[in-house]
Amino acid sequence: MEPPGGSRPVTVSDVQELVRRKDELEAQIKACYELLESQKGVGMNEPLVDAEGFPRDDIDLYQVRTARHNIICLQNDHKALMKQVEEALHQLHAREKEKHARDEAEALAEAMSQSRSLPQPFARVNAVTPGSPASVSGLQVDDEIVEFGSVNVNNFQNLQNIAAVVQHSEGRPLSVTVIRGGRKVHVGLIPKRWAGKGLLG
């Protein structure tokens, strides 16, 4: 396996492999300590000579020396491995953050392209009288009209076009499409006589 920091991006399974190796090393270190323990509790620093300076004959000196040497080597390996685990985790987290930022940027770009692909409005609602058919249908001030029945940006000349459509649609549902807050919204409008002026208000 390539160590973290190589040209290949770190994966979760790389980290799992590093952790498995760390567990193995810890088990080996523990085994070496147990071996020292079995030799009359000799640790890492107890003297291996007796009071007169002779090698102790109550323990297996070779085993003790080997175990001590192994512990030092294994602990160094363990330290290096822990550094690798840490670096690998950092890389994974950095990649997650990058991915999150990329996803956000893509979502934003998509929203932008959607707003660019919105149809062209030909009129804006500047007033809606409360209680009027327009108000009841949900039309709002600042809605930008892109379709009003059969009228759209391609055939709209002036407000007379809308007035004609309204006259012909009295009492019948009329499909109106507006842009509100950067999104297309469909409004079902029924022009009809009411207490106020006109058929819409």
Automatic annotation (TrEMBL):
Instruction: Return the SUPFAM superfamilies for the record.
Output: PDZ domain-like
One annotated Gene Ontology cellular component of this protein = nucleus
UniProt keyword list = Chaperone, Coiled coil
Q: Where does this protein have coiled-coil stretches?
A: 71-98
- Domain PDZ: start-end pairs: 90-182
The reply on keyword NAD is no
One GO biological process term is:
proteasome regulatory particle assembly
Q: Which domain of life is it from?
A: Eukaryota
Gene3D superfamilies from the UniProt entry:
2.30.42.10, 6.10.140.1710
User: Per the similarity annotation, which family is this?
Assistant: Belongs to the proteasome subunit p27 family.
Assembly notes: Interacts with PSMC3. Part of a transient complex (modulator) containing PSMD9, PSMC6 and PSMC3 formed during the assembly of the 26S proteasome.
Q: What does this protein do?
A: Acts as a chaperone during the assembly of the 26S proteasome, specifically of the base subcomplex of the PA700/19S regulatory complex (RC). During the base subcomplex assembly is part of an intermediate PSMD9:PSMC6:PSMC3 module, also known as modulator trimer complex; PSMD9 is released during the further base assembly process.
Q: What is this protein called?
A: 26S proteasome non-ATPase regulatory subunit 9
State which gene encodes it: Psmd9
